[in-house]
């Protein structure tokens, strides 16, 4: 009922269910929240989540950024943060182990 958008509110669904199936359905608050979530999805109140996995294999910087002291290249790395601003991935290593890319390289691939 919620998924097909017949009713927009949980209370309407519960009343309909009471009239058709049983007098007093015992729904927990968690179940009601989930039904409301389905209603919101059906009526476009919230955006549908995407189920496509995104895999980034490499990022190419072109031209090479000139961020080092000599202003002729950089040692790039990537930090990925979630919506709570918590770091969930990093390519950072010991600075001496990071490859130095210079302007003569033309492109800077970050694996």
From TrEMBL:
Domain named C2 tensin-type: residues: 51-111
InterPro entries from the entry?
A: Tensin_C2-dom
Recorded hits in Pfam families, A to Z, give: PTEN_C2
Q: From the Swiss-Prot or TrEMBL record, give the protein name.
A: C2 tensin-type domain-containing protein
């Amino acid at each position: 009922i919620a998924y097909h958008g017949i009713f927009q509110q949980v209370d309407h669904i519960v009343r309909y269910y009471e009239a058709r199936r049983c007098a007093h359905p015992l729904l927990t608050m968690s179940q009601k929240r989930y039904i409301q979530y389905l209603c919101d999805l059906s009526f476009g109140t919230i955006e549908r989540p995407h189920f496509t996995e995104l895999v980034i294999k490499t990022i190419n910087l072109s031209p090479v950024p000139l961020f080092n002291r000599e202003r002729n290249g950089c040692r790039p790395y990537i930090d990925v943060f979630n919506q709570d601003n918590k770091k969930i991935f990093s390519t950072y290593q010991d600075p001496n182990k990071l490859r130095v890319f210079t302007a003569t390289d033309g492109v800077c691939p970050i694996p």
